[in-house]
Amino acid sequence: MTTETSSPANRALIEVRVGELKQLFNSLDPTPFRERDLDPRAEEFIAGWAGELPRHLPLCLVIHVDRHVVSEDEGTMVREAVGEFFRQRATATRRRLRQLLRVGRTSLLIGVAALALSVVAGDLAATLMAGNRFGGILGESLLIGGWVAMWRPLEVFLYDWWPVQAEARLFDRLSAMSVRVVASAPH
């Protein structure tokens, strides 16, 4: 029995085979079935597969269960649980992105202040020790130290944010995917 009638045609298909539906979910999670977390291995498998599929196609998760019959209620609960799990993951990932950008802004303020201070201190050292080789070395060292203070904000704003945003988009896509539960008796 299939618990959803939408066809996987024109959809990027993800297939999972389990002995029982409870294998999809984290066995240590005590919350009701509809609110349970997916098993970490199942989540990794589904998200990994989805990440490799064409982005322009909607996703369809087909769960093959090794038994003769799957009730309509079980299929509905699984669809709701999978959708809710990935909605929560998208929300948590966006929260992590906001925190990362907040850290980036704070780091930028600290880095700019440290850079300005090191430029001023380096110029002062070079002026006070004019003609002394050590003054030039100290001035350059302070300038380099100031730019090193800019490392973290540059890392955040150039490299760190976009993979987190891509992960949130993937979880959005996974939360909207259709889920079909198909009973297929073991061979």
The gist of it:
With 187 residues, the protein is mostly helical. The chain has four helices and three strands.
Describe the structure.
The chain is mainly alpha-helical and 187 residues long. The chain folds into 2 domains: 12-93 and 178-183, no CATH class; 104-167. 60% of the residues lie in helices and 11% in strands. It contains 4 helices and 3 strands. The protein has helices at 40-52, 72-128, 133-149, 151-175, and strands at residues 12-18, 59-65, 178-183. A 3-stranded parallel sheet has the order 1-2-3, covered by helices on one side. Strand 1 (12-18), helix 1 (40-52) and strand 2 (59-65) form a beta-alpha-beta unit. Helix 2 packs antiparallel against helix 3 (133-149) and helix 2 packs antiparallel against helix 4. The two termini are 17 Å apart. The relative contact order is 0.20.
Distance between the termini: 17 Å
Q: Which regions contain 5 or more consecutive residues with pLDDT less than 50?
A: 1-7
Strand order of the largest sheet: 1-2-3
Structural class: mainly alpha
Overall, the morphology is rod-shaped
Helix content: 55-70%
Number of domains: 2
- Total beta-strand segments: 3
Number of helices: 4
Mean pLDDT across all residues, rounded? 87
How many whole angstroms does the radius of gyration measure?
26 Å
H/E series: EHEHHHE
Largest sheet: 3 strands, parallel
Q: Which strand-content bin applies to the residues?
A: 5-15%
